[in-house]
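Hi there,

I know you've been waiting on this one. I reran it after we fixed the sequence typo, so this is the corrected version. Both the input and the resulting structure follow.
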Amino acid sequence: MVASWFTEDGADGEGEGGFRLLGTRCSACASVFFPREDVLCRNPGCPGGELTEVPLSRRGRIWSYTDSRYRPPAPYVSNPELEWQPCTLIAVELEAERMVVLGQGAPGVSLADLAVGMEVEAVPGVLNEDEETTWTTWHWRPTGSRRPAEAEGHTKGTTGVVA
């Protein structure tokens, strides 16, 4: 797990425990950052303020998506002795923050299961594991709530990019 990028502690009243991505918010300009920022505000127009940890929305809507048919290079962790299994990559606009966060789809989620505008939620996932360590991450999983771009008069290509 990347230290301090998410938490699995406690219950949040939204269903599945307290799994949440963690960001930081600037006290001066209210900008929210993910990945978190712990040194200074990234907003170039901000004089700077205290950065505090904030839990981010668990849910958002698919902004774009595609699949990964090749093994990514380092620092991505994977076992080179095992055959690469393609996975979905999903860019999600978070519900409250209106920022886009990229992540893998949950295991078993294929391109056919996704649509631009569909609601997804952040869930715990496994990046890699060996006999001694399990590296955890987040995945995006469809909630079943659909508002695809096609219903709004848009068209998309096979990668989910709205045209």
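Quick highlight: Residues 6 and 72 are 22 Å apart (CA to CA).

Best,
R. S.
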